[in-house]
Protein backbone atom coordinates (compact mmCIF):
# COMPACT_ATOMS: atom_id res chain seq x y z
CA UNK A 1 0.00 0.00 0.00
CA UNK A 2 1.25 3.50 -0.79
CA UNK A 3 -0.04 6.93 0.15
CA UNK A 4 0.24 10.11 -1.87
CA UNK A 5 -0.60 13.69 -0.98
CA UNK A 6 -1.60 16.44 -3.41
CA UNK A 7 -1.26 19.79 -1.69
CA UNK A 8 -2.43 22.34 -2.56
CA UNK A 9 -5.32 21.92 -4.93
CA UNK A 10 -6.64 25.43 -4.53
CA UNK A 11 -10.32 26.30 -4.59
CA UNK A 12 -12.11 29.64 -4.53
CA UNK A 13 -12.72 29.31 -0.76
CA UNK A 14 -9.07 28.48 -0.09
CA UNK A 15 -6.74 25.55 -0.72
CA UNK A 16 -7.69 21.90 -0.99
CA UNK A 17 -5.42 19.01 -0.05
CA UNK A 18 -6.16 15.47 -1.23
CA UNK A 19 -4.60 12.41 0.35
CA UNK A 20 -5.17 8.91 -1.01
CA UNK A 21 -4.10 5.40 -0.12
CA UNK A 22 -3.45 3.11 -3.08
CA UNK A 23 -3.65 -0.67 -2.95
CA UNK A 24 -3.34 -2.97 -5.97
CA UNK A 25 -3.42 -0.03 -8.36
CA UNK A 26 -6.66 1.49 -7.01
CA UNK A 27 -7.57 4.05 -4.37
CA UNK A 28 -8.58 2.31 -1.15
CA UNK A 29 -9.14 5.41 1.00
CA UNK A 30 -9.16 9.19 0.59
CA UNK A 31 -9.16 12.39 2.65
CA UNK A 32 -10.22 15.85 1.47
CA UNK A 33 -8.77 18.70 3.54
CA UNK A 34 -9.56 22.39 3.34
CA UNK A 35 -6.36 24.02 4.60
CA UNK A 36 -7.47 27.64 4.99
CA UNK A 37 -10.07 29.06 7.34
CA UNK A 38 -12.98 31.19 6.15
CA UNK A 39 -14.74 33.64 8.44
CA UNK A 40 -17.18 35.61 6.32
CA UNK A 41 -20.05 34.89 8.68
CA UNK A 42 -18.21 36.61 11.51
CA UNK A 43 -17.60 39.66 9.31
CA UNK A 44 -21.36 40.12 8.80
CA UNK A 45 -22.56 39.80 12.37
CA UNK A 46 -23.38 43.13 13.98
CA UNK A 47 -23.71 44.96 10.67
CA UNK A 48 -26.64 46.43 8.79
CA UNK A 49 -28.30 43.38 7.18
CA UNK A 50 -28.18 44.99 3.74
CA UNK A 51 -24.39 44.77 3.88
CA UNK A 52 -24.61 40.97 3.64
CA UNK A 53 -25.08 41.04 -0.13
CA UNK A 54 -21.88 43.00 -0.63
CA UNK A 55 -19.75 41.21 1.96
CA UNK A 56 -20.72 37.67 0.95
CA UNK A 57 -20.19 38.46 -2.73
CA UNK A 58 -16.46 38.58 -1.93
CA UNK A 59 -16.48 34.87 -1.03
CA UNK A 60 -16.13 34.01 -4.70
CA UNK A 61 -14.78 36.00 -7.64
CA UNK A 62 -15.40 33.27 -10.22
CA UNK A 63 -19.16 32.75 -9.97
CA UNK A 64 -19.36 36.36 -8.80
CA UNK A 65 -22.89 37.41 -7.96
CA UNK A 66 -24.52 34.24 -6.72
CA UNK A 67 -23.66 34.88 -3.05
CA UNK A 68 -25.16 38.36 -3.27
CA UNK A 69 -28.20 36.86 -4.98
CA UNK A 70 -28.66 34.25 -2.26
CA UNK A 71 -28.07 36.81 0.48
CA UNK A 72 -30.77 39.18 -0.80
CA UNK A 73 -33.25 36.32 -1.03
CA UNK A 74 -32.59 35.47 2.62
CA UNK A 75 -32.93 39.14 3.56
CA UNK A 76 -36.13 39.56 1.54
CA UNK A 77 -37.70 36.80 3.59
CA UNK A 78 -36.61 38.56 6.78
CA UNK A 79 -37.67 42.02 5.53
CA UNK A 80 -40.99 40.88 4.05
CA UNK A 81 -39.87 42.22 0.66
CA UNK A 82 -40.80 40.83 -2.75
CA UNK A 83 -38.73 41.28 -5.89
CA UNK A 84 -40.89 42.52 -8.83
CA UNK A 85 -40.99 40.67 -12.16
CA UNK A 86 -38.51 42.90 -13.98
CA UNK A 87 -36.06 42.74 -11.08
CA UNK A 88 -36.38 38.96 -10.94
CA UNK A 89 -35.68 38.62 -14.68
CA UNK A 90 -32.69 40.95 -14.52
CA UNK A 91 -31.25 38.85 -11.68
CA UNK A 92 -31.76 35.70 -13.74
CA UNK A 93 -30.06 37.20 -16.79
CA UNK A 94 -27.03 38.71 -15.09
CA UNK A 95 -26.36 35.51 -13.14
CA UNK A 96 -27.14 33.36 -16.18
CA UNK A 97 -24.43 35.18 -18.11
CA UNK A 98 -21.96 34.23 -15.39
CA UNK A 99 -22.90 30.57 -15.78
CA UNK A 100 -22.26 30.84 -19.53
CA UNK A 101 -18.80 32.07 -18.57
CA UNK A 102 -18.16 29.54 -15.82
CA UNK A 103 -19.14 26.19 -17.35
CA UNK A 104 -17.07 26.35 -20.59
CA UNK A 105 -14.14 27.71 -18.58
CA UNK A 106 -14.26 24.61 -16.40
CA UNK A 107 -14.24 22.22 -19.34
CA UNK A 108 -11.65 23.85 -21.57
CA UNK A 109 -9.29 25.56 -19.15
CA UNK A 110 -9.50 23.47 -15.99
CA UNK A 111 -10.29 19.92 -17.10
CA UNK A 112 -9.77 19.14 -20.80
CA UNK A 113 -6.00 19.37 -20.67
CA UNK A 114 -5.93 16.42 -18.27
CA UNK A 115 -7.08 14.28 -21.20
CA UNK A 116 -5.05 15.83 -24.05
CA UNK A 117 -1.51 15.15 -25.19
CA UNK A 118 -1.00 18.67 -26.55
CA UNK A 119 2.30 17.67 -28.19
CA UNK A 120 0.22 15.79 -30.77
CA UNK A 121 -0.64 19.21 -32.25
CA UNK A 122 2.68 19.17 -34.11
CA UNK A 123 1.40 16.26 -36.24
CA UNK A 124 -1.80 18.02 -37.39
CA UNK A 125 -2.21 17.70 -41.19
CA UNK A 126 -5.62 19.32 -41.66
CA UNK A 127 -6.39 22.37 -43.81
CA UNK A 128 -8.56 24.47 -41.45
CA UNK A 129 -6.80 27.88 -41.47
CA UNK A 130 -7.82 28.80 -37.90
CA UNK A 131 -6.76 25.42 -36.50
CA UNK A 132 -3.55 25.52 -38.53
CA UNK A 133 -2.75 28.93 -37.05
CA UNK A 134 -3.20 27.52 -33.56
CA UNK A 135 -0.91 24.63 -34.49
CA UNK A 136 1.79 27.06 -35.65
CA UNK A 137 1.56 28.97 -32.36
CA UNK A 138 1.87 25.77 -30.30
CA UNK A 139 4.84 24.55 -32.34
CA UNK A 140 6.54 27.92 -31.85
CA UNK A 141 5.98 27.65 -28.08
CA UNK A 142 7.45 24.13 -28.12
CA UNK A 143 10.51 25.39 -29.93
CA UNK A 144 10.84 28.17 -27.35
CA UNK A 145 10.39 25.63 -24.52
CA UNK A 146 7.42 27.67 -23.23
CA UNK A 147 4.28 25.55 -23.59
CA UNK A 148 2.57 26.57 -20.33
CA UNK A 149 -0.32 26.57 -19.67
CA UNK A 150 -1.25 24.13 -22.43
CA UNK A 151 1.08 21.24 -21.66
CA UNK A 152 -0.15 18.82 -18.98
CA UNK A 153 2.63 17.87 -16.57
CA UNK A 154 1.27 14.39 -16.09
CA UNK A 155 2.35 11.64 -18.44
CA UNK A 156 -0.27 10.53 -21.00
CA UNK A 157 -2.08 7.35 -20.02
CA UNK A 158 -4.58 4.92 -21.55
CA UNK A 159 -7.34 7.55 -21.44
CA UNK A 160 -5.29 10.41 -22.88
CA UNK A 161 -6.27 11.66 -26.34
CA UNK A 162 -3.34 11.62 -28.76
CA UNK A 163 -5.04 11.92 -32.15
CA UNK A 164 -3.56 15.07 -33.79
CA UNK A 165 -6.84 16.09 -35.42
CA UNK A 166 -8.84 15.86 -32.17
CA UNK A 167 -6.15 17.47 -30.02
CA UNK A 168 -5.50 20.39 -32.36
CA UNK A 169 -9.20 21.14 -32.73
CA UNK A 170 -9.66 20.98 -28.96
CA UNK A 171 -6.79 23.41 -28.39
CA UNK A 172 -8.26 25.77 -30.99
CA UNK A 173 -11.56 25.64 -29.10
CA UNK A 174 -9.63 26.32 -25.88
CA UNK A 175 -8.50 29.61 -27.42
CA UNK A 176 -11.98 30.40 -28.77
CA UNK A 177 -13.51 29.74 -25.33
CA UNK A 178 -11.33 32.50 -23.85
CA UNK A 179 -12.91 34.98 -26.25
CA UNK A 180 -16.42 33.78 -25.45
CA UNK A 181 -15.82 34.00 -21.70
CA UNK A 182 -14.82 37.64 -22.01
CA UNK A 183 -18.07 38.34 -23.86
CA UNK A 184 -20.11 36.45 -21.24
CA UNK A 185 -18.59 38.61 -18.50
CA UNK A 186 -19.42 41.70 -20.55
CA UNK A 187 -23.03 40.50 -20.84
CA UNK A 188 -23.31 40.26 -17.07
CA UNK A 189 -21.68 43.65 -16.59
CA UNK A 190 -24.33 45.24 -18.82
CA UNK A 191 -26.93 44.37 -16.17
CA UNK A 192 -24.71 44.29 -13.08
CA UNK A 193 -22.83 47.55 -13.60
CA UNK A 194 -19.50 45.78 -13.01
CA UNK A 195 -17.91 42.40 -12.58
CA UNK A 196 -16.86 40.76 -10.40
CA UNK A 197 -18.86 41.46 -7.24
CA UNK A 198 -21.86 43.31 -8.69
CA UNK A 199 -23.67 45.79 -6.47
CA UNK A 200 -26.86 45.76 -8.54
CA UNK A 201 -28.79 43.16 -6.53
CA UNK A 202 -30.29 44.62 -3.38
CA UNK A 203 -33.06 43.69 -0.97
CA UNK A 204 -36.32 43.96 -2.91
CA UNK A 205 -34.89 43.86 -6.43
CA UNK A 206 -32.16 45.50 -8.48
CA UNK A 207 -30.89 49.05 -8.93
CA UNK A 208 -30.77 49.40 -12.71
CA UNK A 209 -33.17 48.89 -15.61
CA UNK A 210 -31.44 48.53 -18.98
CA UNK A 211 -32.66 50.60 -21.92
CA UNK A 212 -33.63 49.01 -25.23
CA UNK A 213 -30.17 49.51 -26.71
CA UNK A 214 -28.38 47.78 -23.85
CA UNK A 215 -30.86 44.92 -23.84
CA UNK A 216 -30.39 44.46 -27.60
CA UNK A 217 -26.63 44.40 -27.06
CA UNK A 218 -27.09 41.71 -24.42
CA UNK A 219 -29.28 39.64 -26.76
CA UNK A 220 -26.81 39.89 -29.64
CA UNK A 221 -24.00 38.50 -27.48
CA UNK A 222 -26.34 35.86 -26.01
CA UNK A 223 -27.13 34.52 -29.48
CA UNK A 224 -23.41 34.35 -30.19
CA UNK A 225 -22.94 32.41 -26.95
CA UNK A 226 -25.66 29.95 -27.93
CA UNK A 227 -23.96 29.21 -31.26
CA UNK A 228 -20.65 28.54 -29.50
CA UNK A 229 -22.21 26.51 -26.68
CA UNK A 230 -24.23 24.26 -28.98
CA UNK A 231 -21.84 23.85 -31.93
CA UNK A 232 -18.53 23.83 -30.07
CA UNK A 233 -18.80 23.28 -26.29
CA UNK A 234 -21.58 20.69 -26.20
CA UNK A 235 -20.25 19.01 -29.34
CA UNK A 236 -16.78 18.67 -27.81
CA UNK A 237 -18.07 17.30 -24.50
CA UNK A 238 -20.24 14.71 -26.24
CA UNK A 239 -17.48 13.78 -28.69
CA UNK A 240 -15.03 13.16 -25.85
CA UNK A 241 -17.55 11.47 -23.58
CA UNK A 242 -18.84 9.06 -26.24
CA UNK A 243 -15.45 8.61 -27.91
CA UNK A 244 -12.07 8.39 -26.19
CA UNK A 245 -13.51 8.79 -22.69
CA UNK A 246 -16.38 6.33 -23.14
CA UNK A 247 -14.56 3.54 -21.24
CA UNK A 248 -14.26 5.86 -18.25
CA UNK A 249 -17.91 6.81 -18.63
CA UNK A 250 -19.08 3.19 -18.76
CA UNK A 251 -17.00 2.29 -15.73
CA UNK A 252 -18.42 5.24 -13.79
CA UNK A 253 -14.97 6.26 -12.58
CA UNK A 254 -15.42 8.83 -9.82
CA UNK A 255 -19.04 7.94 -9.15
CA UNK A 256 -19.50 8.26 -5.41
CA UNK A 257 -22.36 7.21 -3.15
CA UNK A 258 -25.32 8.29 -5.31
CA UNK A 259 -26.88 10.99 -3.11
CA UNK A 260 -27.72 14.23 -4.93
CA UNK A 261 -29.08 17.58 -3.75
CA UNK A 262 -30.29 20.63 -5.67
CA UNK A 263 -31.92 23.73 -4.19
CA UNK A 264 -33.02 24.83 -7.66
CA UNK A 265 -32.30 28.17 -9.28
CA UNK A 266 -33.71 30.84 -11.63
CA UNK A 267 -37.08 31.88 -10.25
CA UNK A 268 -40.03 31.98 -12.63
CA UNK A 269 -42.36 33.72 -10.15
CA UNK A 270 -42.06 36.27 -7.35
CA UNK A 271 -42.72 33.78 -4.54
CA UNK A 272 -39.63 31.62 -5.23
CA UNK A 273 -42.00 28.68 -5.66
CA UNK A 274 -41.32 27.79 -9.31
CA UNK A 275 -37.83 27.56 -10.73
CA UNK A 276 -36.40 26.83 -14.15
CA UNK A 277 -33.97 24.34 -12.60
CA UNK A 278 -36.02 22.66 -9.85
CA UNK A 279 -35.07 21.65 -6.34
CA UNK A 280 -34.90 17.99 -5.43
CA UNK A 281 -33.18 15.22 -3.50
CA UNK A 282 -32.07 11.82 -4.81
CA UNK A 283 -30.89 9.21 -2.31
CA UNK A 284 -28.91 5.98 -2.58
CA UNK A 285 -28.60 6.06 -6.37
CA UNK A 286 -32.36 5.78 -6.89
CA UNK A 287 -32.46 8.11 -9.90
CA UNK A 288 -36.14 7.45 -10.51
CA UNK A 289 -37.22 8.96 -7.19
CA UNK A 290 -36.84 12.71 -6.67
CA UNK A 291 -37.91 13.95 -3.23
CA UNK A 292 -38.70 17.55 -2.21
CA UNK A 293 -36.05 19.51 -0.32
CA UNK A 294 -36.58 20.23 3.38
CA UNK A 295 -33.92 22.64 4.61
CA UNK A 296 -34.66 21.60 8.19
CA UNK A 297 -32.85 18.34 7.41
CA UNK A 298 -29.55 20.15 6.75
CA UNK A 299 -26.90 19.81 9.48
CA UNK A 300 -23.18 20.48 9.74
CA UNK A 301 -20.89 18.00 11.48
CA UNK A 302 -17.46 19.08 12.74
CA UNK A 303 -15.89 15.95 14.26
CA UNK A 304 -12.98 16.06 11.80
CA UNK A 305 -13.02 19.82 11.22
CA UNK A 306 -11.06 22.53 13.06
CA UNK A 307 -14.18 23.82 14.83
CA UNK A 308 -15.25 23.52 18.44
CA UNK A 309 -17.01 20.22 19.01
CA UNK A 310 -19.92 21.94 20.79
CA UNK A 311 -21.17 23.51 17.52
CA UNK A 312 -21.76 20.22 15.67
CA UNK A 313 -23.85 18.38 14.58
CA UNK A 314 -26.36 21.24 14.19
CA UNK A 315 -28.65 22.99 11.75
CA UNK A 316 -27.18 26.26 10.35
CA UNK A 317 -29.57 28.21 12.60
CA UNK A 318 -27.60 26.89 15.59
CA UNK A 319 -24.18 26.44 14.00
CA UNK A 320 -21.37 28.92 14.64
CA UNK A 321 -17.94 29.74 13.26
CA UNK A 322 -15.82 28.92 16.33
CA UNK A 323 -12.40 27.41 15.70
CA UNK A 324 -10.37 24.82 17.59
CA UNK A 325 -6.98 24.75 15.89
CA UNK A 326 -5.58 22.06 18.21
CA UNK A 327 -8.49 19.67 17.83
CA UNK A 328 -7.39 16.05 17.92
CA UNK A 329 -8.27 14.08 14.80
CA UNK A 330 -9.30 17.13 12.76
CA UNK A 331 -7.90 17.45 9.26
CA UNK A 332 -9.97 20.14 7.50
CA UNK A 333 -11.26 23.67 7.91
CA UNK A 334 -14.32 22.59 5.92
CA UNK A 335 -17.35 21.47 7.90
CA UNK A 336 -19.27 18.36 6.90
CA UNK A 337 -22.79 19.30 5.73
CA UNK A 338 -25.26 16.45 5.69
CA UNK A 339 -28.88 16.05 4.57
CA UNK A 340 -30.82 13.58 6.70
CA UNK A 341 -27.42 12.51 7.95
CA UNK A 342 -26.17 11.69 4.45
CA UNK A 343 -23.32 13.20 2.44
CA UNK A 344 -24.77 14.80 -0.71
CA UNK A 345 -23.16 15.61 -4.06
CA UNK A 346 -24.18 19.02 -5.38
CA UNK A 347 -23.62 20.68 -8.75
CA UNK A 348 -24.68 20.33 -12.40
CA UNK A 349 -24.97 16.54 -12.28
CA UNK A 350 -27.30 16.78 -9.28
CA UNK A 351 -29.43 19.44 -11.02
CA UNK A 352 -29.68 17.48 -14.26
CA UNK A 353 -30.55 14.22 -12.49
CA UNK A 354 -33.35 16.10 -10.74
CA UNK A 355 -34.51 17.82 -13.96
CA UNK A 356 -33.91 14.77 -16.20
CA UNK A 357 -33.57 16.63 -19.55
CA UNK A 358 -34.10 14.33 -22.50
CA UNK A 359 -30.73 14.94 -24.22
CA UNK A 360 -28.76 13.86 -21.15
CA UNK A 361 -30.97 10.89 -20.30
CA UNK A 362 -30.87 9.69 -23.92
CA UNK A 363 -27.06 9.83 -23.94
CA UNK A 364 -26.82 8.01 -20.61
CA UNK A 365 -29.06 5.22 -21.88
CA UNK A 366 -27.60 4.97 -25.40
CA UNK A 367 -23.96 4.86 -24.34
CA UNK A 368 -24.48 3.13 -20.97
CA UNK A 369 -22.86 6.04 -19.15
CA UNK A 370 -22.71 5.68 -15.39
CA UNK A 371 -22.63 8.44 -12.79
CA UNK A 372 -19.05 9.63 -12.53
CA UNK A 373 -16.48 12.15 -13.72
CA UNK A 374 -17.48 12.01 -17.40
CA UNK A 375 -21.19 12.30 -16.58
CA UNK A 376 -20.47 15.49 -14.60
CA UNK A 377 -18.93 17.11 -17.67
CA UNK A 378 -21.89 16.03 -19.83
CA UNK A 379 -24.43 17.36 -17.32
CA UNK A 380 -22.63 20.70 -17.14
CA UNK A 381 -22.67 21.11 -20.93
CA UNK A 382 -26.34 20.11 -21.33
CA UNK A 383 -27.30 22.49 -18.52
CA UNK A 384 -25.48 25.35 -20.26
CA UNK A 385 -27.42 24.77 -23.48
CA UNK A 386 -30.77 24.65 -21.67
CA UNK A 387 -30.00 27.81 -19.69
CA UNK A 388 -28.81 29.81 -22.70
CA UNK A 389 -31.98 28.99 -24.64
CA UNK A 390 -34.17 29.95 -21.69
CA UNK A 391 -32.33 33.26 -21.34
CA UNK A 392 -33.62 34.31 -24.77
CA UNK A 393 -37.15 33.96 -23.41
CA UNK A 394 -36.26 36.08 -20.38
CA UNK A 395 -34.80 38.82 -22.59
CA UNK A 396 -38.02 38.95 -24.60
CA UNK A 397 -40.11 38.94 -21.42
CA UNK A 398 -38.11 41.84 -20.00
CA UNK A 399 -38.34 43.75 -23.28
CA UNK A 400 -42.13 43.37 -23.16
CA UNK A 401 -42.28 44.75 -19.62
CA UNK A 402 -40.12 47.71 -20.61
CA UNK A 403 -42.24 48.45 -23.67
CA UNK A 404 -45.46 48.31 -21.63
CA UNK A 405 -44.12 50.64 -18.94
CA UNK A 406 -44.58 47.92 -16.29
CA UNK A 407 -40.91 47.20 -15.64
CA UNK A 408 -40.79 47.74 -11.88
CA UNK A 409 -37.43 46.69 -10.50
CA UNK A 410 -37.60 47.30 -6.72
CA UNK A 411 -39.87 46.88 -3.71
CA UNK A 412 -39.31 50.33 -2.22
CA UNK A 413 -41.77 49.75 0.63
CA UNK A 414 -39.50 47.20 2.33
CA UNK A 415 -36.05 48.75 2.04
CA UNK A 416 -35.36 49.46 5.71
CA UNK A 417 -34.38 46.48 7.90
CA UNK A 418 -36.90 45.24 10.48
CA UNK A 419 -36.18 45.36 14.19
CA UNK A 420 -36.35 41.59 14.23
CA UNK A 421 -36.59 38.89 11.57
CA UNK A 422 -35.04 35.81 10.05
CA UNK A 423 -34.68 34.50 6.55
CA UNK A 424 -33.28 31.69 4.42
CA UNK A 425 -31.84 31.96 0.94
CA UNK A 426 -31.48 28.69 -0.96
CA UNK A 427 -30.17 28.79 -4.53
CA UNK A 428 -27.83 26.75 -6.65
CA UNK A 429 -24.54 28.34 -7.68
CA UNK A 430 -22.74 26.95 -10.75
CA UNK A 431 -20.97 24.49 -8.46
CA UNK A 432 -24.06 23.44 -6.51
CA UNK A 433 -26.37 24.05 -3.56
CA UNK A 434 -25.77 27.32 -1.69
CA UNK A 435 -27.58 28.32 1.50
CA UNK A 436 -27.60 31.54 3.54
CA UNK A 437 -29.30 31.73 6.95
CA UNK A 438 -29.75 35.11 8.70
CA UNK A 439 -31.26 36.29 12.00
CA UNK A 440 -31.84 39.98 12.70
CA UNK A 441 -32.17 41.66 16.09
CA UNK A 442 -32.24 45.42 16.78
CA UNK A 443 -32.06 45.91 13.01
CA UNK A 444 -28.58 44.31 12.96
CA UNK A 445 -27.35 40.89 11.93
CA UNK A 446 -27.43 38.69 15.01
CA UNK A 447 -26.53 35.39 13.33
CA UNK A 448 -25.34 34.46 9.83
CA UNK A 449 -24.35 31.07 8.43
CA UNK A 450 -23.42 30.00 4.92
CA UNK A 451 -23.13 26.48 3.50
CA UNK A 452 -21.43 26.66 0.11
CA UNK A 453 -21.19 24.05 -2.67
CA UNK A 454 -17.54 23.24 -1.99
CA UNK A 455 -18.42 22.61 1.65
CA UNK A 456 -20.83 19.90 0.50
CA UNK A 457 -18.56 18.31 -2.11
CA UNK A 458 -15.18 18.65 -0.39
CA UNK A 459 -16.39 17.91 3.14
CA UNK A 460 -14.38 15.63 5.43
CA UNK A 461 -15.79 12.68 7.32
CA UNK A 462 -18.64 13.23 9.78
CA UNK A 463 -19.27 11.90 13.27
CA UNK A 464 -20.24 8.51 11.78
CA UNK A 465 -17.01 8.29 9.79
CA UNK A 466 -18.95 8.82 6.56
CA UNK A 467 -16.72 10.23 3.82
CA UNK A 468 -17.55 13.43 1.97
CA UNK A 469 -18.59 13.27 -1.73
CA UNK A 470 -15.12 13.88 -3.23
CA UNK A 471 -13.56 11.44 -0.78
CA UNK A 472 -16.14 8.80 -1.69
CA UNK A 473 -15.84 9.48 -5.43
CA UNK A 474 -12.12 8.70 -5.28
CA UNK A 475 -12.63 5.22 -3.83
CA UNK A 476 -11.81 2.57 -6.44
CA UNK A 477 -10.32 5.03 -8.92
CA UNK A 478 -7.42 3.40 -10.79
CA UNK A 479 -3.95 4.81 -10.11
CA UNK A 480 -1.67 2.21 -11.74
CA UNK A 481 1.40 4.44 -11.37
CA UNK A 482 1.67 6.46 -8.11
CA UNK A 483 4.16 8.75 -9.88
CA UNK A 484 1.49 9.63 -12.45
CA UNK A 485 -1.70 10.18 -10.39
CA UNK A 486 -3.62 11.81 -13.23
CA UNK A 487 -6.90 10.04 -12.43
CA UNK A 488 -6.98 11.58 -8.94
CA UNK A 489 -7.01 15.08 -10.39
CA UNK A 490 -9.47 14.12 -13.14
CA UNK A 491 -12.04 13.04 -10.57
CA UNK A 492 -11.49 16.01 -8.25
CA UNK A 493 -11.72 18.45 -11.15
CA UNK A 494 -14.99 16.95 -12.35
CA UNK A 495 -16.61 18.60 -9.31
CA UNK A 496 -15.42 21.97 -10.74
CA UNK A 497 -12.70 23.06 -8.33
CA UNK A 498 -10.33 25.93 -9.09
CA UNK A 499 -6.81 24.48 -8.91
CA UNK A 500 -3.35 25.90 -8.17
CA UNK A 501 -0.55 25.78 -10.74
CA UNK A 502 1.73 23.47 -8.77
CA UNK A 503 1.23 20.08 -7.16
CA UNK A 504 3.77 18.30 -4.96
CA UNK A 505 3.54 14.60 -4.15
CA UNK A 506 5.59 12.69 -1.58
CA UNK A 507 6.28 9.07 -2.49
CA UNK A 508 6.23 7.29 0.88
CA UNK A 509 8.68 4.45 0.21
CA UNK A 510 11.60 6.71 -0.67
CA UNK A 511 10.20 9.96 0.79
CA UNK A 512 11.12 11.63 -2.51
CA UNK A 513 9.21 14.78 -3.38
CA UNK A 514 7.66 14.33 -6.82
CA UNK A 515 6.88 17.67 -8.43
CA UNK A 516 4.09 18.12 -10.95
CA UNK A 517 2.72 21.35 -12.33
CA UNK A 518 -1.00 21.07 -13.04
CA UNK A 519 -2.62 23.52 -15.44
What is the compact description of this entry?
With 519 residues, the protein is an alpha+beta fold. It has 14 helices and 16 strands. Helix 4 packs antiparallel against helix 6.
Descriptive terms for the model:
3-stranded antiparallel sheet; alpha+beta; 519 residues
Q: First CA to last CA: what distance?
A: 28 Å
Number of strands: 16
Approximately what portion of the residues adopt beta-strand conformation? 15-25%
Strand order of the largest sheet: 1-2-3
The main β sheet shows up as: 3 strands, antiparallel
What shape does the CA trace take?
Answer: globular
Integer average pLDDT: 89
Query: Total helix count?
Result: 14
Fraction of residues in H or I helices: 25-40%
User: Please, what is the oligomeric state?
Assistant: single chain
Low-pLDDT sequence parts: 10-14, 498-519
Structural class: alpha+beta
Description of the molecule:
- With 519 residues, the chain is of the alpha+beta class.
- The longest helix has 32 residues, at 373-404.
- α4 runs antiparallel to α6 and α6 (164-192) runs antiparallel to α7.
- Helices cover 39% and strands 18% of the residues.
- 50% of the residues are buried.
- It has helices spanning 40-44, 52-57, 66-79, 85-111, 129-143, 164-192, 212-241, 246-251, 348-355, 358-367, 373-404, 453-457, 469-474, 486-493, and strands at 2-11, 14-23, 26-34, 201-202, 205-206, 260-262, 265-267, 275-277, 280-282, 298-301, 336-339, 420-429, 432-441, 444-451, 503-507, 512-516.
- A 3-stranded antiparallel β-sheet has the order 1-2-3. The chain has a 3-stranded antiparallel β-sheet with strand order 12-13-14. A two-stranded antiparallel ribbon has the order 4-5.
Amino acid sequence: MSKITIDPITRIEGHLKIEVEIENGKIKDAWSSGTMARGFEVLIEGRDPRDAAYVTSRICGVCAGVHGWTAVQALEQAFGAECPDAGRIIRNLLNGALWLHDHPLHFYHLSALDYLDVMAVAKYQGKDPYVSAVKDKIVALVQANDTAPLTPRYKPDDFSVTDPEIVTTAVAHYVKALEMQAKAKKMSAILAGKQPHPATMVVGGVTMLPNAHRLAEFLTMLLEQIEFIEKVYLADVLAFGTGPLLPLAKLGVGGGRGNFLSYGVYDLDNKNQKRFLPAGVIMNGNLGSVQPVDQKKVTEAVKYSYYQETIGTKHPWESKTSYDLDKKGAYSFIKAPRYEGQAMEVGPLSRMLVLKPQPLMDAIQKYEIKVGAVARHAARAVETVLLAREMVKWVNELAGLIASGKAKIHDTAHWNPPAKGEGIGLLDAPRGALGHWVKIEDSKVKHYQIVVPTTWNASPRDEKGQRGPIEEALIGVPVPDPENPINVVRVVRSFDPCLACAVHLIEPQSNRILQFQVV
